[in-house]
Amino acid sequence: MNTVSRLVTFVLVLCFSSCLLSGAMTPKQIDKEVKNLVKKMTLEEKVGQMTQLTLETIQKKDSGPEFTIDPEKLRNLVVKNNVGSILNCGGQANYTKTWHTIITQIQDVATKETRLKIPVIYGVDSIHGANYIREATLFPQAIAMAATGDPDLVHKAGEITAMETRAAGIPWNFNPVLGVGRQPMWSRMWETFGEDTFIVATMGAAYIKGLQDNDISGDNRVVGCMKHYLGYSMPRSGRDRTPAWIPDREMREIFLPPFKAAVDAGVGTVMVNSSEINGSPVHASHYYLTEILRDELGFKGFVVTDWDDINNLYTREMVAPDQRTAVKMAVMAGIDMSMVPYDLSFYNHLIDLVKKGEVPKSRIDKAVSDILRVKFQLGLFDNAYPPADKAGQIGSDANWSVSLDAARKAMTLLKNEKAILPLSKKAKVLVTGPTANLLSVLNGGWTYTWQGDQEKLYPQEKMTILEAITAKVGADNVTYVKGVDFDKRQDYDKAIQAAADCDIVLACIGEPTYCETPGNIYDLTMTQPQLDLVAALAQTGKPVILILTEGRPRVISAIEPLAQGILATYLPGPEGGRAIADVLFGDYNPGGKLPFSYPKYPGGFEWYDFKKSADGNGGQVRFQWPFGHGLSYTSFKYANLKLAAERIQLKALKSLKVSVDVTNTGKLAGDEIVQLYVSDVVASITPPNKRLKGFQRIHLKPGETKTVTFELNPDAFTFIDHKSQPAIEKGQFILRAGDQKKAFWLD
Ligand code: BGC
């Protein structure tokens, strides 16, 4: 080939591949395709698109350890009954190879054997990484990601999760959780980004952009699903799927903004809160699902129910007398797709409701159009199959290093009396407690199984806390006695005796794995056997370090004074063991900050943005540790908090630039999460004492100073007034960062 023909071939190849790459259709083209397709569809085909079933409904009876599809069941549901969506993993995480077989079989039937060849949209919960794919990279759970104060890291985790999920052929992720975690008893607290609206909104939007980018048709992207809209994270009783009581004003101020931020970030789907707000089950609420979500927030994607929740309207919530009425209520409120998940009841009832004129055809057309639009956006009509083998990329070393980075950054040092930490690598340590030698407890629910409790499924090359400590300081320096399980004593006396021969006790306490309702508790206090063990260990006179591995802040006020050092690790994921050992022995300087207020008492919970009168005795609300708390092995000094203006005319307020200098005054390099708080001094609705309005994680070498700048927009000064409207009132505001504060006036 001569040079010219080589050049021509090169240009042709380039053109061909870029044509393939730019296969994404424009929104206009997609709308046209959707319109044309909907015109051709029968009522049954349309309602089938609104029906989502669980993978178990097409499982072959008595199939072996590998999930196997029964082709007849598959055809019956997808071809005969037009089912358009399938979810879940069939009991436990599958290897990518198995996923490829499952997805290929499903899409073969959907795109070759159905009349209109509409692909199925498959969805899973990739909650902390692609946790239903055996080879995937898993990250710390959301509560730990919030503690990192690093939205770029959350974005990166979103990108990796998307790539690894789509690599299995799955284009839809039921994540992120955007509930604001204000109920510390709740068994899903760890699925949230914590108690602060601003952090949840910031992290949620970063994650969605990581999952979706601007084009979800790519084979490394998935469509996200913000959940659980709305108010699910605030069950009054503290137990899962129980009623919330949230005044409209507070709902708009605290709970709605993260969903608004997600809509603005372009999220494609939403899943609904299983429970009720103020007596209205959200699945039956036109107000929440249509008036607020569609009309106010401008959401354009589609709405899926949570598991079995249309049935719950007549079996649990008692707002419908029967199943048929429940289906009508939900669809008319704004539900587009029902996660049924086991049968065709929704499908049959809805067809009948439309035929009898009880649900208008226009409502069905709108729902189907919104679902099909997402299928087009995902590129499923061009290629519904798993991408070519990405074996080396799923769970790559590079991806796992992001997980380790996140686990380290999440570590939050709560107490460090007389700088007991970091420990010398020569110290003789006793490692004890129920969380010391399990991988499952570092991960929590949504890990290989729903409950995450199948220890045998965890990758054996990852290290428990005990294994990581032993690897770091050598077996000769480590004694391990479990001492207690979560709910009972085990080799308790042996643990106390072992403490006598050691220099330091590392008590690993916390929670077993759980998810959703099985994680319900009636008392937030740490279990008694664990409290007893720590108290007895402290009696030996040996210094005690507590390593807390827990999905929610279990109350430890009885033993807190007995410990010299306390490290919050949350649910740090499979690299948590390494990260913990790194912090304990000084190979990583901790910089995480608590994303919730750690309660001191098992009742009367408050949040960091409490009102002045909240304590009732005129004093400060008493926390074990306040929101935003976290120590370092170095020290930081704040200076020169500066505002671009000290007074601004309210009408002219567009933004306010704020800066502060932070210096590392210690001897070690370290990270500091700089937090900016705003207080409205006097307002027509009793103002919170402060609200977080900006945060940035910075790294400082010893002696180094950085100037951190924030741009506050009017939202930073806005609250929701007594008419449920956003308001900014004239007057004084106080801005705080570290120990610095400055007054600011709106005139
Ligand atoms: C959970 C959802 C999840 C769904 C599908 C439900 O039980 O509440 O968060 O997405 O199951 O697995």
How would you portray this structure in words?
- There is one protein chain.
- By secondary structure, the chain is α/β, with parallel strands linked by helices.
- The chain has 21 helices and 28 strands.
- The strands form eight sheets. Strands 11-16-15-14-12-13 form a six-stranded mixed beta sheet, sandwiched between helices. It has a five-stranded parallel beta sheet with strand order 4-3-2-1-10. A five-stranded mixed beta sheet has the order 20-28-27-22-23.
- Helix 3 packs across helix 14.
- The longest helix has 19 residues.
- It is globular and about 75 Å long.
- The structure holds beta-D-glucopyranose.
- The site of beta-D-glucopyranose has 9 residues, from loops.
Structural class based on helices, strands and sheet pairing: alpha/beta
CA radius of gyration? 27 Å
> Span between N and C termini?
76 Å
Bound molecules: beta-D-glucopyranose
- Strand order within the widest sheet? 11-16-15-14-12-13
Strand portion: 15-25%
Q: Let me know the average pLDDT.
A: 96
Largest sheet, in brief, is: 6 strands, mixed
Helix proportion: 25-40%
- Given as residue ranges, the uncertain stretches (5+ residues, pLDDT < 50) are 1-22
SSE inventory with pairings:
Layout: H1 3-21, H2 27-40, H3 43-49, E1 51-54, H4 71-80, E2 85-87, H5 96-113, E3 121-124, H6 142-147, H7 151-167, E4 172-173, H8 197-212, E5 225-229, H9 248-255, H10 257-264, E6 269-272, E7 276-277, E8 280-281, H11 286-296, E9 302-304, H12 309-315, H13 323-333, E10 338-339, H14 345-355, H15 361-377, H16 397-410, E11 412-416, E12 429-432, H17 440-443, H18 465-473, E13 478-481, H19 492-500, E14 504-510, H20 528-539, E15 544-549, E16 565-568, H21 576-584, E17 598-599, E18 623-625, E19 636-643, E20 647-648, E21 656-664, E22 670-680, E23 691-700, E24 705-712, E25 719-720, E26 726-727, E27 731-737, E28 740-746
Parallel strand pairs: 1-2, 1-10, 2-3, 3-4, 5-6, 6-9, 12-13, 12-14, 14-15, 15-16, 20-28
Antiparallel strand pairs: 7-8, 11-16, 17-18, 19-21, 21-24, 22-23, 22-27, 25-26, 27-28
Helix pairs in contact: 2-15, 3-14, 3-15, 4-5, 7-8, 7-16, 8-10, 12-13, 13-14, 16-21, 18-21
